Amino acid sequence: MSPVARQLVASAELVVGGKRHLALADSVITGTRLSWPSPIGDVLPEIAARRGRPVAVLASGDPFHYGVGDLLMRAVPAEEMLCLPQPSAFSLAASRLGWSLQDVSLVSLHGRALEGIVRYLQPGARILALAWDGETPARLATLLVDRGLGASTMVVCEAMGGLREKMRRTTAAGFDLVDVAALNTIALEVVASPQATVLGLAPGLDDAMFEHDGQLTKREVRAVTLSALAPRQGELLWDIGLGAGSIAIEWLLRHPSLKAIGFETDPKRAGHAARNAAALGAPDLKIVEGRAPESFAGQPAPDVVFVGGGLSNPGLFDAAWSALKPGGRLVANGVSLATEARLIDCFGRHGGELVRLEVSRAGRAGSTSTFVWRPAAPIVQWRARKP
């Protein structure tokens, strides 16, 4: 710690931190020590109760970059806080490797699903990932190999900035590191084989990427639907009639700040959606099993609603429209004549746009070598904005 930091810690009535940090600063601390409780947010009342008196919080690196700073801001106004940041694990790793941080994807796997890194696994990408524990590098190597990215280079950076700092290089396929320190950061350079599973950056992923039982919004219609949903930063989507989860998953892949709740009555389809979300890098998809609109109860109001099924359920549309925030957007797709009639009625009452989507794919004519166009059932799509 700097001389200023030492003085602030020494003068604090209360010093909060992990057991490791409290031990490292033991010779400086004169006030009461408090280890992080579980859950960690329980510490906020203790800090708030001492408002106006000196409290020190010990943290590694930059507290406002995947650190405790965000938590503290829930109890302490910025003008009442003095933060003395140090180089983060990302900064230390980048400086050792000679990487420019503006060209690197920064990911935290600490307390998060490992699959969250999938969206960043692009050929040639450089990624720095904060590990959850000493097992994270091996688990990540397995994930990379399973996706055809086994030639990717991994550098495991352990105990960065300390006396036990260590950097070990390997490939995902050849990963054999043992006794990895719990405090580690993984530097990854992605190398993709021709058969690698890589997510495209545009909406409309290949249908083959989704596990489903036929209840899937097909690729071309999905791309148009995502365009109609028009995701914006921080918005929450309700996907009603989740099916395989393709719309909600592709919504989440558009930006890390987006959120989605999927409503599905069929437990098997909900299982398909959960596995698809993990495999395609959207593990934060929230799935609510149950019949709509009853399952809407207690859920946060959506900014955007997609209705992919269930419009025949009494009260579903009215409940979804009522839950939608003012200015929010609703998109509904229908295949059957009954659903088409319902959407035409909604269009007449609420305005918006009514679109008919027709897609044909080339296929063989029976057992011959002749190809013909095979039209899929047309989709009627209604798009509207709530006043």
Characterize the structure shown.
There is one protein chain. Helix content is 25%, strand content 22%. With 387 residues, it is of the alpha/beta class. The strands form 4 sheets. Strands 11-10-9-12-13-17-14 form a 7-stranded mixed beta sheet, sandwiched between helices. Helix 7 packs across helix 8. 32% of the residues are buried. The model has no long low-confidence stretch (mean pLDDT 95).
Provide mean pLDDT, rounded.
95
Overall outline: globular
- Unreliable spans are none
Determine the oligomeric state from the structure.
single chain
Assess the beta-strand content as a share of residues: 15-25%
Helix content: 25-40%
User: Which structural class best describes the helix and strand composition?
Assistant: alpha/beta
Distance between the termini: 55 Å
Give the count of helical stretches.
Answer: 11
Spell out the blueprint of helices and strands.
Elements: H1 3-10, E1 14-17, H2 19-24, E2 32-35, H3 44-48, E3 55-57, H4 69-72, H5 89-97, E4 105-108, E5 126-130, H6 136-146, E6 153-158, E7 166-171, E8 184-189, H7 219-229, E9 236-240, H8 246-253, E10 259-264, H9 267-279, E11 286-289, E12 304-307, H10 316-323, E13 329-334, H11 337-350, E14 353-357, E15 360-364, E16 371-375, E17 379-385
Parallel strand pairs: 1-2, 1-3, 4-5, 9-10, 9-12, 10-11, 12-13
Antiparallel strand pairs: 5-8, 6-7, 6-8, 13-17, 14-17, 15-16
